[in-house]
Amino acid sequence: MSSHPAHSPSKTTAYVPSNSVFKDDIFRGKVLFCTGGGTGICQKMVEAVMRHGASAFIFGRRENVLHLAASALSTDTLQRCSYAAGDVRSVESLEKAVAKCIAEFGRIDFVISGAAGNFLCPIDQLSSNAFKSVVEIDLLGTYNTVKATLPHIKASQGSFISVSATLHYYGTPLQAHVSSAKAGVDALSQALAVEFGPHGIRSNVIAPGLIGDTEGFTRLSTPESQKTILKNIPLRRFGTRGDIANATVFLFSPAASYITGTILICDGGEHHTRTPASFGDSDPTKQDLNKTKKPSSKL
Q1: Which CATH homologous superfamily contains domain 24-297?
Q2: pLDDT grade, residue 286 (50/70/90)?
Q3: Start-end of H helices in 125-168
Q4: Where is this region: Disordered (predicted)?
Q5: Pair 59, 95: CB distance under 8 Å
Q6: For residues 70 and 58, what is the distance between their CA atoms, to the nearest angstrom?
Q7: pLDDT digits (tens, 9 = 90+) for 232-245
Q8: Confidence of residue 294 (pLDDT cuts 50, 70, 90)
Q9: What DSSP line would sit under 89-116, residue for residue?
Q10: Boundaries of every domain in the chain
Q11: 3-class state of residue 203 by DSSP
């Protein structure tokens, strides 16, 4: 029997930085284009790729946030990082950003589609406009990112990663909007993998579980619900942004050269044990929805 207490994760499951596994320069000369790269999980994904030698171009809605993020990423990794502000719901906006990226860096090898929005809301209180907004940011935004970057990814025989979720694997209360959008993201990535595999292009999805060091985790959960959910995670810990960053480095690396059309679930095994009780009481009359009305957005 294991000597580890049932409530404690094994030391072998703890997060380790990717440079303890992969060579520092495996992405030298490569260029990453990332939507949503100014904050949260996606910023950490960008940082990890840059730490292995790549330059990066981040795209989002808030220019001041992007400016600070690009400066910090360049300083921390000693690699170049540029940015453009815009809206993923507009393919023209993305095409302008891609043109700027090509003008500055000359190529695009990797693409991360990570812009997203989320909030808690029961279906009977969810307006059509609110549903549409999330689908347009998450799903249409991913499609527009693919459309804008695809000619350059074909030229470099590069790779796409779309950031999804595990919410749609089961009926997740209060998350019909984002569940629907992320199911579409998964389907889009798989179609992309099949259609453009003959061109040497790979397309994969990373589906994070509950990532503890994010703003959304704090806002969309309570200490009580966190305790309930933690009991259902086989590895007995919440994920970190670094865990998702490591998955990113792997999928973009030559080690994953024969992997495409997959969904890499990074949730500590939680989706295998999920039940309605995993989320606590989903009755909207018993939820504190006021703290979640501001959309969680990585734009």
Answers
A1: NAD(P)-binding Rossmann-like Domain (3.40.50.720)
A2: low
A3: 128-135, 141-156
A4: 275-299
A5: no
A6: 7
A7: 899 999 889 999 99
A8: very low
A9: T-HHHHHHHHHHHHHHHS---EEEE---
A10: 24-297
A11: strand
Percent of the chain, pLDDT > 70?
86
Q: Say which residue the tokens 């284009």 belong to.
A: 33
Neighbours of 187 (CB within 10 A): 12
Which residue has 């840059």 as its token pair?
Answer: 50
Active site amino acids: 164, 182
Q: State the virtual CA torsion across 91, 39, 79, 83 in degrees, nearest 10.
A: 30
- Chain position carrying tokens 């808690």: 120
On whether the CB atoms of residues 292 and 284 are closer than 8 A, the answer is no
Which residues fall within 8 angstroms of residue 216, CB to CB, at 6 or more apart? Answer: 40, 118, 296
> What single-letter amino acid sits at 130?
A
Which DSSP category does 239 fall into? B
